[in-house]
Amino acid sequence: MALIEINNTLVLNKRRGPPCQHSCNLSTLNFNGYFVGFSSYSTTMSNIHRNITFQKISILRLLLSIITGVLVQYCFNIIVLYFAIAAIISLLLFALLNFVSITQKVLFKPLLMGLSLIIFFISIGGIVSFEKNEIHNKEWIGNYYKAGYPVLLTLQEPLVARAKSYKALAKAEAVLINNQWQPVKGNVLLYFIKDAAEPSLKYGSQLIVANPLTEIENANNPGGFNYREYCFFQHTYYQSFLKAGSYKVLNSYSTTYLGSLIINTRVSILSILRSNISDSEELGVAEALLIGYRDDLDKDLVQAYNNTGVIHIIIISGLRMGMIYGLLLFLFRPFKNKRCVAFVRPIVILLVLWGFCLIAGAAPSATRSTVMFSFILLGESINRRTNIYNNLALSALIILLINPFSLWDAGFQLSYAAVISILVFYKHIHNWFYFQNKLLGFIWSLSAVTLSAQILTLPLILFHFHQLPTLFLFTNVLAVPFSCLILYAELLLVIISPMPFLATIMGRFVGWMLGIMNTYISNVNDLPFSVWSNIHVTQPQVLLLYGFIIGMAGWLLYKNKRWFLSGLFFFLIFSGYNAMDLIIKSKQQKLIVYNISQHSAIDIIDGTSYLFEGDSSLKEENFLSNFHLKPARILNRITAANTLSTVLFNQNIIKSNKKTILIINKSFANYPVPTQKLQFDAIIITNNPNIYIKDLTALFKCNLYVFDASSPTYKINYWIKDVIAARLNYYSVTEKGAFEMVL
Question: Which of 585, 619, 650 is the last residue of a domain?
């Protein structure tokens, strides 16, 4: 869900019935203007659609070329020299064609000039992608660091309390090599174990860490979240778990004025909220809603917001920035005709918007909105009208030039998809119904925004979250305006915080409203039909879905059967792809040993059914099972069953037509001693049993031993040494990720 970020006044009266009274003019801060249109532009939505051509959206062509270059460099790891050569050649060709055209005609000149420009900007995208990747920097920490080298680090944030540790992001400054400090670049995640009092560290604190830094690795469970890649895009490559005495805190600090201002403001706001809101769930949502702080959010509550389609409420998105922008316009409205304010107004609004964006962590969706609103304000100041699609493309271009890896950010993708979807489809959906009643008109306008935003975000939602909220329309109609009121109340709480009595009353009011919203979301989430889950969509299927949506939209908008046939073609391919995958999955027989630290988890799969063998805590739906197990089950399209048809599991033995596997856990002591040496294709050792490899080799004949993540590391290493000594093969889940075997 996103706000209507349109630099136009929306004229919505071109339909049957009397003129609509609910035009979206943001010059007045009422709920009918809540969708953030811009009254400074008089172009109607119909004029926008009539004037949209690919030639007029020049920045979009530039953006697509830059994106292509970013993708090509990342996927094929092409060195920057090749991109530089291509850029120079294409630029020279463009200049040559311009020069030659003065004296004589050139065959295919427009095509060649266009192609040269496309190649040039693709090369620019590749160069930016290469240069922004710190691995290609000579000072990247990975080029110098080796285990045991002391590292000088600077904390980039205050410590965040977790269940068993304090977490902080640190910037690597230098590595000590042969008694000389070598400057390096790169971020490190630090976890301070709670074995003593909280370390006296804050933003800017510098420390020397002698404890080994380890590369950030994935759990590598099938279909799981790529945490390593996520950290890579944040320029974070190493992590370290520190105990008291494994690091030395220096007396020096390294801060910036802007960084200190942002951190101190953030800490002050959190302190105000924590002092005046007592309930932990309400506090977590309040922190997330106001400044995007999500460390105190209850995981189950976050899942409820996600399941009901209102997760955008508790993340800093274009919706939040639109609320702030609308409030600022409302506050300046009484001074609209004051000449002295005309100059101050855009400066103040820009400072507040960018300050709020930075305090909230400068998420891609928030940055996109802030950049767009900045262009709108600047356009107003110089009396220039701009194309909304060019503004949108330019904001994306700026974000990608600053950080090209934002392209992989789900928030970035969903934010732009939502805004484009609203721009294209809102007017047409809104015209379905007309209401004279203002309240009904507002409800339908908000519903139309929600529906239109879902059209182009649907494929991305299915791909990233594997589920579709079925009641998103009902939850958004109430939750979005309610969250707007809560946000404004929180801002008022921060303003009146120096007055404790008033702040306490306002804090209780905010907590009361948050309690109502949380209860409403939780109750909707408890409905059995609130979410359609376990949807598996691949990247090619996402493209096919977009082809289908564009074809159907073109057919409905332009009444041309070619659009319909194109959409139908993509849908048939999508359906065939899906049917083929279902047929393949229905014949699968495999075993998966998951990589979950300190937990045992094994799925035995037969067709589209599975049996689970492991810790009882993972049998219920919780954060660990949803994060580690659910993605693999969605990927394999499997559901729980009591028995399997062709794969047998009895007394720790898994038996299929081709494979026999033994699971050894703590109950192995009660296992009857075989009268003869039994043969297995694999032996899985889980749950820290008290066994020796030599005893197992005396009882069983097996060439492969699998160790899961539930046993202590020292014990696994001990077993591995014995397996190697016996000249047998082994697979350590903690080292290589989940173990999969075809049965």
Answer: 585
